[in-house]
Amino acid sequence: MKPLNSIALLLLTVFGATGCGSSGDNHLSSKSSQVDDKKVDDKKVTPGNTDIRISGTVEKGPFVIGSTVTINKLSEKGENTSTTLVTKTINDLGRFEFTATAGDILQITSTGYYRNEITGTLSKDVLTLRSLYEANDNGQQHANVNLLTHLTSTRALALIKNEGQTFEQAIANAEKEFRETFSSVIAAPQGADFASVSIFNSIDETDSAYLLTVSSLIYKYALTASAANNTASEAELTLLVNKLEEDFGADGNIDDTEALSALANMHAQIDPVTVTEHLKQWVADSGSAKIPDINTYLDSDQDGTANSLDTDDDNDGIPDAEDNQPYTAQLVSDDLSLTTKEDSPLEITVSSNSPLESPIQLTIQSQPQHGTLSGSYPNLSYQPNANFNGQDSFTFVLQQGDLLSREITANIVVSAVNDGPSIAGTPPTTVTAGQAYLFTPEVSDVDLDTLTFSVENLPDWAEFNENTGQISGTPVNTDAADYSGIKLSVTDGSISASLPVFGILVAYSPLAAPETLTTDVEQVSLKRYRVNLSWENVDFSDGYEFQFATEPTFSRPLMEKLTVGNELTFEHEVGKYVWRVRTVNPDGLAGE
Predict the structure, then answer these.
(1) Which domains, and CATH codes, for the chain?
(2) How confident is the model at residue 37 (pLDDT cuts 50, 70, 90)?
(3) Mean pLDDT of the chain
(4) How far separated are the first and last CA of the chain, in Å rounded?
(5) pLDDT of amino acid 286
(6) pLDDT of the residue at 28
(7) Which residues contact 410 (CB under 8 A, 6 or more apart)?
């Protein structure tokens, strides 16, 4: 079966359901529903011929072959009529063909999958675009469907229906209004009407470049929104296009300044080299398709000068002639040469340009071997390992959006410094007379310098070793006292270290009991005696504990007394008794 008959059968099925007329040769007519294999020859159309061959393309990027194209005939007031034709695109550049009658006002609607100029891939969902076109009696006519025709179609119909403008006036005014309201996103040429513009093969290539740039900006916006919202880019595209169409259609102005600003910001996100390569792949088999220069309107650095006229398209300070990525700004940061002293932290400030004016991330590629890093861009802190001196380094990369810097190296020289000695230990703070006192501090010096010790307020009974810092001695009761303000220090000749100031309390030793005890008894009555007791005085005594009992264990003494002197007198009845005395030292401790 011939392809034309296949289309005719499809149209018969469609129009059998809708009641609209069509001929098998894709002729828009309400008078006939017969299939006719006869084709109209473009070159034979004459001023009196009502069969006008019209061709066009459907482009977001180009719609794929087999995409549905529906042509509705409208009245002069822009109202739908009963005349409808359904056809399909016939190649992967979105081309379609049909015939109509001169003077017909047509609404062309297409739904299909499309090629994506940003990613180079096919869309995962379909998109619907519209265009308005008035057929004339020219032999060859082009009625394209694209984003520009879609965004202005609702507004043009409103001008026809509500303001009584002719089709030609409405199209011209709607397109003029669009160029003006969209100028904050992209400058527009005063070129051909949008229905005659195609990404490929427009009469004026600047028109093609304008359409390509608008299409790229809108889809890049959709990709960015889908990444932020975790949604499908195709859904974000449809949402944006429909919102812009509705907004513009209301009054010929796009009031959503936030969307316009976001679209303008997409200039910097588009790689024109990649877009151009995708277009080349699409037209590789066509041979005759012309590829527009997106740089005619793309302004990568948004400085108001299109790339084609700008010598530094990405405004990163690298002239395009020397820039390996002239349309995408590069993060530029120099290698670092840094110095610090041993054991001293180093504060590092990383400087870089900021092409995208968004946060910059710093990722460490290799850690330093002799220290630790902390912080985030642009402020890092390097802490060398304890007592390290010498060479160290680390590497990192910067990222801003999709931009990555080269690997940057930070070289660090850690200069040696004299490490002072350290001293530690807890000296005893009490000693009893007659017992030995000994303290040796713990010292270290990473430089292994010769160390010298010194002490302040050393007690007279103590000795000090200048080589080891040892304090030693055996105090006696004559040394009993509280010795304060002792300071033990060590030095390497330059740097000193000291223990906290401390004191030593020398306590009295327990004192021996008096060696000689004397008892003198004198009767004062029949059964009562006066008892005079005395004993020798003991050095350093502060008093004496006296006990008087009937048994030598003194388990139940009859009398106990603490006396300062060395004699005691009292009266007692007749009996056999024992007594004893213990010496009490100045600390209140009784001896044996």
Answers:
(1) 1-39 (no CATH), 40-274 (no CATH), 336-411 (2.60.40), 422-507 (2.60.40.10), 517-584 (2.60.40.10)
(2) very low
(3) 89
(4) 134
(5) 66
(6) 67
(7) 335, 336, 338, 348, 393, 394, 395, 396
